[in-house]
Each structure stands twice: as structure tokens, then as C-alpha cells.
From TrEMBL, chain A:
Record Gene3D superfamilies: MetI-like (1.10.3720.10)
Family in the record: Belongs to the binding-protein-dependent transport system permease family.
All residue ranges annotated as the ABC transmembrane type-1 domain in the record: 90-303
Keywords: Cell membrane, Membrane, Transmembrane, Transmembrane helix, Transport
Identification of the protein by name: ABC transporter permease subunit
Protein localization: Cell membrane
TrEMBL record, chain B:
GO MF annotation terms: ABC-type maltose transporter activity; ATP binding; ATP hydrolysis activity
Annotated organism of origin: Paracoccus litorisediminis
InterPro entries: AAA+_ATPase, ABC_transporter-like_ATP-bd, ABC_transporter-like_CS, ABC_transpr_MalK-like, ABC_transpr_MalK/UgpC-like, Mo/tungstate-bd_C_term_dom, NA-bd_OB-fold, P-loop_NTPase
Domain ABC transporter: 5-235
One GO CC term, this protein: maltose transport complex
Gene (UniProt): ugpC
Pfam families in alphabetical order: ABC_tran (PF00005), TOBE_2 (PF08402)
Organism domain of life: Bacteria
Family designation: Belongs to the ABC transporter superfamily.
Key words of the record: ATP-binding, Nucleotide-binding, Transport
Protein's name according to its UniProt entry: sn-glycerol-3-phosphate ABC transporter ATP-binding protein UgpC
Length: 315, 358
């Protein structure tokens, strides 16, 4: 009886941490920690660690060759006051986001609505339409795009067949960014699949009730489909916008890494890359990276704040 | 202003699969008609064909004498209440009620008047600002009905509207829909698989099976004079008992080697196999008038308070019989009871299931 009391006391009383607690914890939950380990190592070594180091580097003049030297907020001040390329990159990126995201979402929704009409061979079409999204961010597709839109490319060859002399889409600063926008819209598969899943969740009897009320297809789309799909639209919108802010490969390949012509395809990430690996201004590039993080965070937070006005959750 | 609906040899096929097979039916102006039948009998499909939500493969749908096969759903003057309510979850109750009126181009004051009138009728005025998710099942059902009322349609269609409600609420809503029909006087068609709903609400019941009308008529007509064994078994709760018998002579039948007087002509030659149908409430336990069916052993007693249901196993036949006795009876499992029937309340069916009229 006394022995039992002693054991109970030691388990229930809160006192100093018993000796060897770490050893006991590992013995108790060792298997769990083993399973967690790959992710934890990856997160601390490849994500959180480099992120914190880049935050520190953003306040230095690190150039990869010499030891970093603390320079305070100098990098950020330069960005705000004395870097026209930074301003150009921001403008190009914002324009790209503003054009590519709505167009891609609209295109993805349109295709999803067509595929949602219960056609035969739907899985085949779904796979075909999704294919560009699998290939789209690859260097190969960007190279292909470059060939398509070159002055002697396929697009201009087809335009020539109907008597139109096409411009050099890639080397003309008036068109180069739009070529990248078209490439982005072409990669509509991922949001389309999500839209399709969302459309399938809308009960058909709501459309039937609306059709009995005399609602036209347009009215049904505006008053039923869009509101009921709004959580999915919001999800796609946030994801695609973040992706657009981070776009790099197409601009790098098509402009040959220069962001040209005349900075017309100088995406923010491309400029960051140039600063880091062309000019070895790693401190400044780190500051650029953190500004991009802040821009994306502000945008995402603002998007979430607007949800109460236009996103309709059923629960 | 009530409307006549007529179906002339209406058919529906999905590829080679016949769902509705040549239905002829007339629904009188202002009638409350119930389509009833087991799952897959085509009752909802038929309703949706009338609504215009399904195309009609063959035959004619006439509303007030005009052919409606190719008329858009919105132009048929029909409102429908769906099994799932089909309320728009992102709209308030007010907006749900107003949606059809806005679509039809009504002015705002008229919309407001109609919505508030319907809300008052259905006692949902206090919930007009709420979203459907903030309503109970019964309140949602009222909103769904309100959405159909505001448009002042000629015909109301109900597709199993009470199936998602609990038993108590079903009874309550059943009464409310019946009262609503009395007040509005519109032609209404109501689909259900619940024959109690059909019996309590309908002016006319249409029993469907395999895409065909098995019988159409008033509830008591179907109960008292079923035209076939299917209707006899489907209408009435608990369902009718069926016992295989053979014809003894012009007015009698053999059961378990004993001749029992049928009290009418069976229109069959001696030895012909028939099915005797007798409703549980028409079997009497104990001595008294009528024809004896012999003794039976009580296998199970269900005390319902107002009545007592016995499941008994008679000497004849492998199937137990169900007996409903009025009031509370002192029966226990294992008791032996003697069964009697009134021949006038017996039904006889041919091997093909057709009823034999005396």
C-alpha cells in the first residue's frame, strides 16, 4: 500500500523535472520522432534556417566572397530611393500578376464549366487539359514558347498565312510581357481541376429551381455558380497570385536571363536572381527576397480581409 | 383558375431503358394528386417531366388543353418544392423568396408585398433576414414552399418534400401542406414513397410500379377496391395479408382443406389457385360472426396504445399473418387465438395479380 502511494505521489505532484526525462521521452515516443525527423530536418535546415540567415544577410553587404558586414537598413533604403531597376521589376511583376491571374482563372473556370456538362470521355479531356500545367513551368516549355513566338516562329507563320505580318513577340518590349502572360494562361490546368471539383459540389437542383424560376444561364452563373464557387475562386486566386509573384523560369528563358528587352520581362524574382548570382550582391538580394515576402504577405492578408464581402461559406 | 393536367401515353426512355411506359392520366383542376410507389417506380421522373426538367420521349403532356412537351419549364406556370429544398445557401430567406420574382422582373414594392405575404402565411416572417443554414429542417421546408407560393403558379409540384424531416415534423408539415392546398385551391402533385402521406393528403392517389400506373383513384377507393395485388399490398399499413387458396365452388374457397364461404362469385372454376387478401384490421380474434380461419399461435405482440398488432402463425401456410386489434389487448407471445374473417371484406386475386370482383 505504501509503495503504491509513493508511485502515485511521484506521478501527480508537480516538482522539479525528473532526471533522465529526455531519455524517457525518446524511449516513449521514439518511433514518432523518427517519422517526424525528415520533415523537421528539412524544415529547420532548408527552410527556417536559410530564411533567418537571409534575413540577417539582408542587413549586410555580403558578396559571397568576403565576410558579411553589417550595414543596417542600407539595402532597404537603396531599394526605396535609388534603384530604378527595383521599381521597374515591381511594375512588371504587378502588371504580370494583374493580367495573368484573372485571365488564367477565367479561362480555367470556362473550361471547367464546359467539362462539367457531363460529356463522354471526361477523364481523357481532363488529363489533356491538365498536361500544360505539368509541363508549363519547365525550361523545355519556355524554350518551346520562345520558338513559337520568335519573329520567324509558328505564330507568325500562321499569321502570315492570313496575310498578317506579325511582330517579333519576344524581342519587342510592347509584346514580350504579354507573351509570358499567354504562357501563364496556357497553364490553366491546376485551377481548372480545382474549379471542376468545386462545380461538382453545387447541387443540380439549385439550377433546376432557378430554371423553373425562369433564370437565364447567365443569371444562373452570376447568382448561383459564382457565389457558391466563391470559396474555390478565392483559394485559386490566392494560390495563383502567389505563384505569379514568384514566376521566374519563363522570363529567364525567354529573355535569356536579362529581363529584356528594356526590362519589359524583368520579373521581380529574375531581378533578385541577377543581383544574387550575376552581381553577387547577396545582401541586397536577400533584402529583395524579404520585400517580396512582405508584399505577398500583405496581399494575402488583404485578400483574406475581403472574403467577408464576397466569399460565401456554407458552414 | 385551377388547372387541368393530362398525360396521354407519356413515355420516357434512357437509351434502351424504359423508365415511364405509356402513362395515361388526368388530373382534375384543383386536385391534390399523390404519386406513390416503391423506389425506382418512376414517380419522381414523371413529376420532373411535368415540371419540364426532363424531356418527354413520347406522348403528350397537356396543361389546360395546351401541349407542353416543348415549352420551357419556366413557361409552364409551375413551381416545385424539391426533396433537398434547393435553397440558395448564400442568400437570406428574403432573397430566396424574392429570387423568382426578381427574375420575372417584378417591381420592388410588389416583390416585398408578395414575400411578406408568403412569409406570413408560412409563419417565417421572423426568419426573413436569416441564411438557410441558420434554420431548422422544418423552417427550411417552409421557405422552400414559400419560394413556390410567391410566384403564384398554376401548379405546385412536391418531390418527396418531407423525407428529410423527423416523424413529428412530417406529421405537422403534412397538415400544413394540406391546409395550404385547401386555402390556395391550386392543382398540386405530390410525390412520396410513404403511403400514409398519400392516404392522408390526396384527393387522388396514383400508384406507380415499373413506370406504369397500377391504379389511380381516391384513397378509399384504392383501399377498398384495389385493382390488383400490388396496390392491395402497397396501400394500407400494416400491409394486407396474402394467403394462397384454391377455388372450391362458385362461391367458396378451400383453405387448409376446409371450405370457406366467400359470399360472392369467384368467377373461377373449381381448383383454380387464387390469392386471398385480407387486411390486418379485418381479421377478428375470438368467437363471433364470420368465417373461421382456425387457430393460430401468437409470435409477437406490439402494443401501440391505441391498437395492438399481433404477428400470428396460423396452422395453414408458412407465412405469418398480421392482425390489428382495436385498443389494448391482453395478448402475450405464445398465446393461441382463433381467427375469423368477414368474407365481405376479403379480396381475391388471380395468379396474375388481378383483383376478382364479386
Amino acid at each position: 500500500m505504501a509503495a503504491c502511494d509513493a508511485i502515485n505521489d511521484s506521478e501527480t505532484k508537480k516538482g522539479p523535472v525528473p532526471e533522465g526525462w529526455l531519455k524517457r521521452a525518446i524511449q516513449r515516443n521514439g518511433a514518432g520522432y523518427m517519422f517526424l525527423a525528415p520533415w523537421l530536418i528539412g524544415f529547420f535546415c532548408l527552410t527556417l534556417g536559410p530564411a533567418l540567415i537571409s534575413l540577417y544577410l539582408s542587413f549586410t553587404n555580403f558578396d559571397l566572397l568576403t565576410a558579411p558586414e553589417f550595414v543596417g537598413a542600407q539595402n532597404y533604403v537603396r531599394m526605396a530611393t535609388a534603384d530604378p531597376k527595383f521599381t521597374a521589376a515591381i511594375k512588371v511583376t504587378l502588371l504580370y500578376v494583374a493580367l495573368s491571374v484573372p485571365l488564367k482563372l477565367a479561362f480555367a473556370l470556362a473550361i471547367a464549366m464546359v467539362l462539367n456538362r457531363g460529356m463522354r470521355g471526361l477523364p481523357v479531356y481532363r488529363a489533356i487539359f491538365y498536361l500544360p500545367s505539368l509541363l508549363g513551368t519547365s525550361v523545355a516549355i519556355a524554350v518551346l514558347w520562345r520558338q513559337l513566338f520568335a519573329s520567324d516562329g509558328l505564330v507568325n507563320a500562321m499569321l502570315a498565312m492570313v496575310g498578317i505580318e506579325g511582330p517579333s513577340w519576344i524581342s519587342n518590349p510592347n509584346y514580350s510581357l504579354y507573351t509570358l502572360v499567354v504562357l501563364s494562361v496556357w497553364q490553366f490546368g491546376s485551377p481548372m481541376i480545382i474549379f471542376l471539383a468545386g462545380l461538382r459540389q453545387i447541387p443540380t437542383d439549385m439550377y433546376e429551381a432557378a430554371s423553373l424560376d425562369g433564370a437565364s444561364p447567365t443569371r444562373q452563373f452570376l447568382r448561383i455558380t459564382l457565389p457558391l464557387l466563391s470559396p474555390v475562386i478565392f483559394f485559386n486566386f490566392v494560390i495563383q497570385t502567389i505563384e505569379a509573384f514568384k514566376a521566374f523560369t519563363p522570363a529567364f528563358v525567354i529573355s535569356g536571363g536579362s529581363g529584356g528587352p528594356i526590362n519589359s520581362t524583368l520579373f521581380y524574382t529574375l531581378y533578385l536572381y541577377q543581383e544574387a548570382f550575376s552581381y553577387f550582391r547577396m545582401g541586397y538580394a536577400s533584402a529583395l527576397a524579404w520585400v517580396l515576402v512582405i508584399i505577398i504577405a500583405i496581399f494575402t492578408a488583404f485578400s483574406f480581409l475581403t472574403t467577408k464581402y464576397w466569399v460565401h461559406y456554407d458552414d | 383558375m385551377a388547372t387541368t393536367i393530362q398525360l396521354n401515353k407519356v413515355e420516357k426512355r434512357y437509351g434502351a431503358h424504359d423508365v415511364i411506359r405509356g402513362i395515361d392520366l388526368k388530373i382534375e383542376p384543383g386536385a391534390f394528386t399523390v404519386f406513390v410507389g416503391p423506389s425506382g417506380c418512376g414517380k419522381s421522373t414523371l413529376l420532373r417531366m411535368i415540371a419540364g426538367l426532363e424531356t418527354i420521349t413520347d406522348g403528350d403532356l397537356m396543361i389546360d388543353g395546351a401541349r407542353m412537351n416543348d415549352v420551357a419549364a419556366a413557361k409552364r406556370g409551375i413551381a416545385m418544392v424539391f426533396q433537398s429544398y434547393a435553397l440558395y445557401p448564400h442568400m437570406s430567406v428574403y432573397k430566396n423568396l424574392a429570387f423568382g420574382l426578381e427574375t420575372a422582373g417584378y417591381k420592388r414594392p410588389e416583390i416585398d408585398r408578395r414575400v411578406r405575404d408568403a412569409a406570413s402565411t408560412l409563419q417565417i416572417t421572423d426568419y426573413l433576414h436569416r441564411k438557410p443554414k441558420a434554420l431548422s429542417g422544418g423552417q427550411r421546408q417552409r421557405v422552400a414552399i414559400g419560394r413556390s407560393i410567391v410566384r403564384d403558379p398554376k401548379i405546385f409540384l412536391f418531390d418527396e418534400p418531407l423525407s428529410n424531416l423527423d416523424a413529428e415534423l412530417r406529421v405537422q408539415m403534412r397538415v400544413e401542406i394540406t391546409k395550404l392546398h385547401e386555402r390556395l385551391g391550386n392543382t398540386m402533385i405530390y410525390v412520396t414513397h410513404d403511403q400514409v402521406e398519400a392516404m392522408t393528403m390526396a384527393d387522388q392517389i396514383v400508384v406507380l410500379r415499373g413506370g406504369q400506373v397500377m391504379q389511380a383513384g381516391s384513397p378509399l377507393k384504392l383501399y377498398n377496391e384495389p385493382e390488383n395485388q400490388f396496390v392491395a399490398g402497397f396501400i394500407g399499413s400494416p400491409k394486407m395479408n396474402f394467403v394462397p387458396v384454391s377455388v372450391a365452388d362458385a362461391t367458396g374457397f378451400n383453405l387448409d382443406g376446409q371450405r370457406i364461404e366467400a359470399g360472392r362469385s369467384l368467377h373461377s372454376t373449381a381448383g383454380t389457385a387464387l390469392t386471398l387478401g385480407i387486411r390486418p384490421e379485418h381479421i377478428v380474434v375470438g368467437d363471433g360472426e364470420g368465417q373461421s380461419l382456425g387457430d393460430a399461435q401468437v409470435e409477437l405482440v406490439e402494443h401501440l396504445g391505441g391498437s395492438t398488432v399481433l404477428h400470428v402463425r396460423p396452422r395453414f401456410g408458412a407465412e405469418p399473418l398480421t392482425v390489428v386489434l382495436p385498443g389494448q389487448q391482453p395478448c402475450r407471445n405464445g398465446d393461441r387465438v382463433s381467427l375469423r374473417i368477414d368474407p365481405a371484406r376479403c379480396h381475391f386475386f388471380t395468379p396474375e395479380g388481378r383483383a376478382i370482383r364479386g
